[in-house]
């Protein structure tokens, strides 16, 4: 780690030919530690998903319970997956979109026709890829008019979504968008992210509550309920603490971005714009706090 920045380095990739049980994963950890001459007490934190085999290997067999930290972005992705998979009407729309995307991926003629009228490529959802359903629906909606014009000419092609289903798909994407932005907040490798969890969850809850949709309100309520249940133990109900934490974090991030190279300027601006939308509740808290301080200061000055 340099003086004013963090480094992310891959020290090992190993194919596990045997069963991925806790004992074999533990042996892999031991092999990597031995190869790099790293002592276990030198490892401060091990961040993993919530798989039972991984948890057992880290907590019980290798590093101990005090050294494990669950991956927030992975947990956040699980928050969105469960409601989408358990609501039949929503799952039906997602399945129809996935079938259409699969058809264009497998049909050379249909894909060639789409390339002629549209510069964008369709994206397929992948269960192991974070936010892939959001990206699939978002790209599908951008290309929907072109897709409809092509499918209507194909006799054995999949059925296009109806007008009502298109509207619902747009609202599903609107609900998933803040979760995608939150995931991006935790994919950075040049700044500390763990201290952002509590304030971000609070802002995410407030942001989702304010989303105005007409159709998939069940999705909205299910996501909010799942989000609260998974992170109910976090102390995210103190606005003043949230405001102070975010203020310090954002100042540090601003310093890092100011000193970073100009080659990443465009992508950083896009991420910042999405993050600012997600942090809108925090910004409101900051504005209210500043007005109170200003009002109190003016009152003291007038008394003197």
UniProtKB/TrEMBL annotation:
<keyword id="KW-0479">Metal-binding</keyword>
<keyword id="KW-0863">Zinc-finger</keyword>
<dbReference type="InterPro" id="IPR012337">
    <property type="entry name" value="RNaseH-like_sf"/>
</dbReference>
<dbReference type="GO" id="GO:0008270">
    <property type="term" value="F:zinc ion binding"/>
</dbReference>
<keyword id="KW-0862">Zinc</keyword>
<protein>
    <recommendedName>
        <fullName>Transposase</fullName>
    </recommendedName>
</protein>
<dbReference type="InterPro" id="IPR052035">
    <property type="entry name" value="ZnF_BED_domain_contain"/>
</dbReference>
<keyword id="KW-0539">Nucleus</keyword>
<dbReference type="GO" id="GO:0005634">
    <property type="term" value="C:nucleus"/>
</dbReference>
């Amino acid at each position: 780690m340099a003086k004013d920045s963090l480094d992310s380095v891959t020290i090992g990739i190993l194919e596990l030919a045997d069963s991925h049980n806790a004992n074999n994963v533990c042996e892999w950890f031991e092999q990597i530690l031995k190869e790099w001459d790293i002592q276990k007490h030198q490892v401060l934190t091990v961040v993993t998903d919530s798989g039972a085999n991984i948890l057992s290997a880290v907590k019980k067999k290798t590093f101990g319970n005090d050294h494990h930290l669950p991956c927030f972005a992975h947990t956040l992705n699980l928050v969105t997956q469960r409601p989408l998979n358990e609501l039949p009407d929503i799952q039906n729309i997602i399945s129809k979109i996935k079938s259409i995307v699969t058809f264009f991926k497998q049909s050379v003629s249909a894909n060639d026709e789409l390339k002629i009228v549209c510069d964008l490529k369709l994206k397929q959802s992948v269960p192991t890829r974070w936010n892939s359903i959001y990206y699939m629906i978002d790209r599908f909606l951008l290309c929907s008019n072109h897709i409809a014009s092509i499918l209507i000419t194909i006799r054995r092609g999949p059925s296009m979504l109806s007008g009502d289903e298109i509207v619902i798909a747009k609202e599903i994407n609107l609900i998933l968008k803040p979760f995608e932005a939150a995931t991006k907040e935790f994919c950075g490798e040049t700044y500390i992210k763990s201290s952002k969890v509590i304030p971000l969850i609070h802002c995410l809850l407030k942001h989702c509550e304010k989303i105005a949709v007409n159709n998939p309100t069940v999705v909205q309520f299910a996501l909010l309920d799942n989000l609260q249940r998974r992170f109910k133990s976090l102390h995210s109900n103190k606005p003043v603490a949230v405001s102070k934490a975010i203020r310090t974090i954002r100042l540090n991030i601003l310093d890092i971005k100011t000193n970073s190279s100009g080659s990443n300027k465009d992508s950083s601006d896009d991420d910042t714009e999405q993050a600012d939308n997600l942090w809108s509740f925090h910004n409101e808290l900051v504005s209210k706090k500043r007005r109170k301080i200003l009002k109190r200061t003016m009152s003291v000055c007038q008394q003197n």
